[in-house]
Structures are given as structure tokens and as C-alpha cells.
Amino acid sequence: MMGNRLNRRDFLWRSALIGCSAAASPLVTPMSFAAAPWDNRLVVLILRGALDGLDALRPVGDPNFATLRPDRGAGTGVALDGAWELHPALAPLVPLWRAGELGFVNATSTPYRDKRSHFDGQDILEAGTTGVGQARDGWLNRMLQAVPGIEAETTYSIGRGDMLLTTGAAPVSNWSPDAALSLSPQTERLLEMVTHDDPLFRDALGEALVLSGLVAPGLAGEILQMAEMMEMAEGGAMDSGGVMDRGDMQDARKALAEAAKAARSAGGYDALARFAAQKLRAEARIATFSINGWDTHAAQHRTLQGPLESLASVLLTLRDDLGPAVWGKTAVVAMTEFGRTARLNGTGGSDHGTAGLMIYAGGALRGQQVTGGWPGLAEADLYARRDLLPLSDVRAHAAGVMQGLFGLDRAVLEGQVFPGLDMSGAARLVL
Q1: pLDDT at 228 over 50
Q2: Is residue 275 assigned to a domain?
């Protein structure tokens, strides 16, 4: 058993380092486990910040895609077939695709519509309900409540504790890495400037910096995104009066990039995947954690690269560390709170949208397919003339995976696990 105590300094640091994108990218990534009376394994990855599915899996067979994304047309990604190309950052996953161990569900979403808040979208995604605030436990925990004899594996928990996804009456153990890196004076100054106009965040950050010079490894993606935004802002660099000039901006951007590199070298998401695999090879049967950094409002051609690389590395790490026998009994499901706009915005990013992409992998699943249907990208086909139109409820696909893996009754899934769900639209994903 691991055993470091959570002290006040670490708690305040992890509590204080929040900002306008805190809901999109929680800085502490907890991991939850549950042992169960079956041999199959389930890993649920929450992609916080709203993955742009149109970029991760490019619909190059749709003639309107090249109009909406002129720099993402056919030939710019890794071809899966004539209709779909992977983002180049996902190229390492092509062997999984060819082995039938990787697939996608397109044009899917939770029941959340129109307001496009990360807080609300993630609440609905993890609660598994049709509206905000309808449940204070998560769908994965409610699934465990329906199975007699569930026991929590004894592990160690720090930071945020349970995700909403696993919160509830069923016993679940938690673990979070205790790795960190030191902030340079330049990065401290940059963080002060980022929060300059928000007294609440500025004061909390100031206290945290006094108490601790630490940053969690999961912050690497967010640091890189901040560096990209600093680079974009460099042309209109601010002057004096306590704000950065062009030289300060360049120094801060360099410091951020160095901090990101150090954070990634500390282990990052691969460390979570290795720990998950270790537990899943033993008594644990379910694991869940988050991958952050998907809120790509600007310079998406660069800011999406890192999170996609992290996702690809996590999937391959799980496969390699689980080994062929356990991987063959494993399903990995990656879900996000909503998709992004079909058109890029003026800064080369994409804004909050509606339908998105569910990514799945594992030897227990039916891969080498893109399922879920395709609504089209003509303006008249878009939701509110801006977003990919939802054709299915992502909860139905998650329920179908659990039904196939664990033999759960449909009535339990539709009534208890996902209240109000109709599973008739679930894709057949389990072998």
C-alpha cells in the first residue's frame, strides 16, 4: 500500500491552481478502482475539455469537410479507409486499428444541449443523467451498486478524491500520483499575470505560490496551451504598468515550455496507465481517470497535438502493460462532455459544440469500424447550423459495453445506471 500523508501545503496548492478553464482541465487527476465478480475489465477515460472529434477522426469522405477545415482535408492525416483519416498524433494507434482493437462512435453526445458549459457538460457525462444536478452519484458507481459482492481495492487517495463518475454508495478506492515539479521565477510571474484581472484567483494563486512551489504533472498540457496563447499574443504584447512587454512574453513562453517538458518527464498520464494496468492484472476490474487539455479554442493545429499524443500513449501503455491475455478481456472507452464547432474560429481553434466522438479500444471490443452514423456537414445538416448533429446518446454505447462485458440486465442499465436511457441505439461493440 502507498502511504504519503496529504499535508496542508499540497492541499492548498491543488485547491488554488484554478482559473477560467478549471472545469475543462482539473489539475489533479484521481484514479478510481473497483474489484468485481467477473473476469472482464473496463477502463473509462474522461477527456476533459471537449475533444474535437472532427479533427481526431477526420471525415475526409464528406465533401464539406475540406470547406469547413481547409487545412485538414484528405491526405493531411493517416488514412484508415477512403472516408476517414486519423490525426497524425494518433498514428501510433494504427496497429490497434488493423488488429481490430480500436474503433470510434461518431456523432454521439450526452443529452446536454446548447448552453455548452464545461461544468454542466461534465456533470451530465459523469452523473449519466439527462439534466444538470439530477444525481449526486455517478453512473459507474450505480452500476457497481447493482452487482452483489462488490469490494473496493485498498489504495491511497490524495487530491480531489472521487470523480463524480465513481461517487456513490458502492465502495471504490482512489489513488493519485504525488509527483510534482518546481516553478521557475519566470513561470511564477507569468501565472501572476494570467490571473492579474481576477482577484479571487490571483489571491489564491499567490497564497499557493508562497506555500508551495509545486505543479502536478497533469498540468503539462495546460502549460503548453498557455504557452501557445502567449505566442499568439506576442504580436500585441502589452507594455509596462505591471504587464508584460515583448521580451517578458518570450521569456515566459520559454519558461512555460520548459515547465511542460519537465512535467511530462515526471511520468504524466503514462504513469496513471501503468498503475491502472498493475491493478487490473490483479484484483481490480474497473479503472477510470481523466486526460485533460482538450479545450482547444486557439491554434488547434498545435494545441491538440499534445493531448492526442497522451491519449495514444495511454492506450498503448495499457495494452503493453496488461499483456495479451488481460488485454483480450479489456474494454477501454474514452468519452468527452461535448464536441466542438464544425468551423474553426478566427484564432484557428474551435469552440464548444454538441455532438462529438467516442473512442474505444481493447481486445474485448469489436474494432476496425466507425459506427454511429453520419449526419453530414452541409450547413443545413449541422445542429443549429454550427455543430455536428447528435445521432445517438453516448450513454447508450457505454451501457452496451457494460451489458456485453458484465451481463447486466437492460432494465437495470436503463432504469438504475442511466435513468431515462433508451438503449435501442447502442452500437454493438463487445465481441
Answers
A1: no
A2: yes
Helix or strand or coil: residue 228?
Answer: helix
Grid cell 459544440 in the structure block, residue: 353
Identify whether 304 is part of a domain: yes
User: What is the extent of the structural domain holding 241?
Assistant: 181-262
Phi, psi of 301 (to 5 degrees): -60, -20
Mapping DSSP to helix (H, G, I), strand (E, B) and coil, where does residue 78 land?
A: strand
Are residues 247 and 385 both part of a single domain?
A: no
Q: Among 262, 289, 320, where does a domain finish?
A: 262
Q: One-letter amino acid identity for 59?
A: P
Tell me if 405 sits within 8 A of 42, measured CB to CB.
Answer: yes
**Does 229 lie in the same domain as 153?**
no
Helix (H) / strand (E) element for 102: namely strand 102-109
Measured CA to CA, the distance from residue 46 to residue 23 in angstroms comes to 12
Q: What are phi and psi of 23, to 5 degrees?
A: -65, -35
Question: Which whole number is the average pLDDT over 158-168?
Answer: 66
Q: Which three cell numbers stand for residue 115?
A: 448552453
What CA–CA distance (Å, rounded) separates 171 from 122? 22
Residue found by looking up cell 475540406 in the block:
66
Higher pLDDT, 274 or 181: 274
In Å, what is the CA distance from 74 to each residue of 59, 64, 246, 388? 9, 12, 38, 19
Same domain? For 203 and 281 the reply is no
Q: Give the gyration radius of the chain's Cα atoms.
A: 21
Q: Using H for helix, E for strand and C for coil, what is the string for 328-378?
A: CCEEEEEEECCCEECCCCCCECCCECCCEEEEEECCCECCCCEECCCCCCC
Q: How far apart are CA 331 and CA 327, in angstroms?
A: 8
CA distance 311 to 302: 15
Domain count, the chain: 2
106 CA to centre of own chain: 16
* Strands 284-291 and 41-47, sheet pairing: parallel
pLDDT tens per residue across span 104-149: 999 999 999 999 999 999 999 999 999 999 999 999 999 999 988 7
Question: What pairs with residue 109 in β-bridges?
Answer: 393
Same domain, 39 and 168: yes
Flag whether 225 is in a domain.
Answer: yes
For residue 156, the number of C-alpha atoms closer than 13 Å in the C-beta half-sphere is 11
